[in-house]
DNA sequence: CTGAAAGCGCTTACAG
DNA sequence: CTGAAAGCGCTTACAG
């Protein structure tokens, strides 16, 4: 096994001191051009690369960001991470991706490891079970900025970057409204989730904004399968009427679409379908599903710029909401 | 910002030496029970956690594995990573996930960073553009085992863990055969990919194993859209016959399914569909698509045990092929 | 312009 | 059973 090149080795070969080599390599003004040239040449030759552990031990900084998500099998998080990585690369930070598996215990371990590694900052979508946010606040105390995204705590005074749940729901509701559809099934997620509450409330509100008569049936599904069953049981009452189904999330949309295929119904004639999505699932069907887009990519860009402001010293906590836009498929 | 607890701080408070604290903490037999008790107590109280940078600098070991994949938006990789993380956690290793974005340059950067970090080992699915595998072999020289999985280089003498392309293709072909279907459309991926070649060859071979008459049309699609277009243009010739479509991958399946929905055809009566998949996409349709399963999870378990054997000193390079199994949907 | 020295937080061979 | 010391590879204030 070949030894790694160190400053010492370069210094010895050039018969100069380690300090000089170190300075030459970082283009310190004190060092003569001639020395710099020699040092750079040799370090190229020997493929010198500084030992990050030594640097960190010395400087207490890692130039690393951590992104923590409950799950990776999620297009939304995937595009969020892409955005972070793009930005990070430009500033020669690296990005470590952690997966909490939606388990608060694992989340705590990850957090601890982030602290020990003295990462420069953390982007995190918390688990649905996370109750104690004390450890997150403590990291801020330790000088490690924490930016919450997507799944964020209730607690007020922290940095949060969220999808505009209300906005997305209102876009979807408006589209239904504009199509003159007055029979609507709304399938929402777990009652206890804050995004369910936000989306439901706004959806309802917009749909009833005029005093137009509306026949709205709202239900909750905790899984794709449940959404499928609910859709199957609800549709019969709507057959023959002009109606639409709103799916609050990709998971629900997947279940609903299975039911629709099972019943052999065609969009947009037999019924309309509209969702809120990051855009992968809706594109698997024909016609493609119309949806209000929640973009992980946008969210990532917003989160990153917030992070850089924190690193620059801003201690002001802020909640940023990303707006969504309607993406037309042919399903409604 | 609160300072981190160090060995020194504990030693001072207890008026003993740093060495003793260090030893007590790792339950060294030399140290008296009494001292151990005191040290452990105080370190609990002060929430002592060793500085990983210092340890690494000293011991040259990181207890960290790297997993490098071209993309995260891929259920297969996701389940591979899950398997690795499970195993790693048991041995208190941590796992860093890197994404090469299918760019060999980024892949090289990641590799370099793995080397500097002296990760304990690397699991990697290389990019489709990766030609130079020299740097990977060099890592082995540096004592960092590299296990290739899924997308592996041609080069013989390295550790590779692969999906059984031939086996999966033969399972799918056999199922078509067993159903007595003799008109078949086979949609394959990019001609240049080794998995395309392996799958195509075996599929063809099994389908023609008896001398039964077979009407097989094989085409290549580079994208989901292309698969959709091909399906649309090929189906008319098969309508009325008893026929099936084989989709080599999820990407192709997604395109083909869009075409089928567009034409309003029903499985399994109008046609049969069968694929090779990790199982997420097939479950989005009704009826669910029958597929030969390539399990990222299995692959991960296999890769991990291979890794541990490498770390234990095995230098013998090995190629391991994971078998697949048929998962019945109702599509054929 | 260059170098010697201290120190980041740990581990471990050596000495007692 | 415990401690002093060296050293992992770097950076940087200090001195010249």
User: Per DSSP, what share of the residues of chain A sits in E-state strands of 2 or more residues?
Assistant: 15-25%
Number of helices of chain A: 12
Which spans of chain A of ≥5 residues are poorly predicted at pLDDT below 50? none
The geometry of chain A reads as elongated
H-E string of chain A: HHHHEHEHEHEEHEHEHEHEEHEE
Keywords (chains A, B): DNA-binding, Transcription, Transcription regulation
Protein name (chains A, B): LacI family transcriptional regulator
Organism (chains A, B): Pedobacter mendelii
Pfam families (chains A, B): LacI (PF00356), Peripla_BP_1 (PF00532)
Feature tags:
44% helix, 3 domains, 434 Repressor (Amino-terminal Domain), Rossmann fold, 6-stranded parallel β-sheet, homodimer, alpha/beta, 332 residues, DNA-binding, 12 strands, 18% strand
Describe how the helices and strands are arranged.
Two copies of one chain form a homodimer.
Chain A: H1 7-14, H2 18-25, H3 33-45, H4 52-59, E1 64-69, H5 75-90, E2 94-99, H6 104-116, E3 121-124, H7 134-141, E4 146-149, E5 159-163, H8 165-178, E6 183-188, H9 194-207, E7 215-220, H10 224-238, E8 243-247, H11 250-263, E9 272-277, E10 290-293, H12 296-311, E11 319-322, E12 325-327
Parallel strand pairs in A: 1-2, 1-3, 3-4, 4-5, 5-11, 6-7, 6-8, 8-9, 9-10
Antiparallel strand pairs in A: 10-12
The structure holds a DNA duplex (16 and 16 nucleotides).
Keywords (chains A, B): DNA-binding, Transcription, Transcription regulation
Domain HTH lacI-type (chains A, B): 5-59
Pfam family, one (chains A, B): Peripla_BP_1
């Amino acid at each position: 096994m070949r030894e790694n090149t160190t400053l010492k080795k370069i210094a010895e070969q050039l018969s100069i001191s380690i300090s000089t080599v170190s300075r030459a390599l970082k283009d310190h003004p004190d060092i003569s051009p001639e020395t710099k040239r020699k040092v750079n040449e040799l370090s190229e030759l020997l493929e010198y690369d500084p030992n990050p552990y030594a640097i960190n031990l010395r400087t207490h900084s890692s130039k690393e960001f951590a992104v923590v998500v409950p799950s990776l099998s999620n297009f939304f998080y995937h595009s969020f991470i892409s955005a972070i990585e793009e930005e990070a690369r430009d500033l020669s930070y690296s990005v470590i991706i952690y997966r909490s598996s939606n388990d608060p215990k694992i989340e705590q371990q990850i957090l601890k490891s982030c602290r020990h590694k003295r990462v420069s900052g953390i982007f995190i979508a918390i688990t649905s079970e996370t109750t104690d946010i004390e450890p997150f606040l403590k990291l801020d105390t330790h000088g490690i900025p924490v930016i919450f995204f997507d799944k964020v705590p209730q607690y007020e005074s922290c940095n949060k970057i969220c999808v505009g749940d209300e906005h997305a729901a209102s876009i979807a509701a408006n589209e239904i409204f504009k199509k003159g559809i007055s029979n609507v099934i709304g399938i929402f997620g777990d009652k206890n989730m804050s995004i369910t509450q936000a989306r439901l409330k706004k959806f309802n509100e917009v749909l009833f904004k005029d005093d137009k008569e509306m026949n709205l049936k709202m239900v909750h599904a905790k899984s794709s399968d449940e959404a499928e069953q609910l859709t199957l049981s609800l549709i019969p009452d709507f057959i023959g009427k002009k109606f639409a189904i709103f799916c609050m999330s990709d998971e629900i949309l997947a279940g609903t679409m299975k039911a629709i295929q099972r019943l052999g119904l065609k969009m947009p004639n037999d019924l309309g379908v509209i969702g809120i999505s990051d855009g992968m699932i809706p594109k698997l069907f024909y016609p493609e599903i119309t949806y209000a887009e929640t973009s992980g990519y946008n969210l990532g860009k917003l989160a990153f710029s917030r992070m850089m402001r924190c690193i620059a010293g801003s201690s002001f906590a802020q909640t940023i909401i990303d707006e969504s836009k309607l993406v037309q498929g042919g399903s409604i």
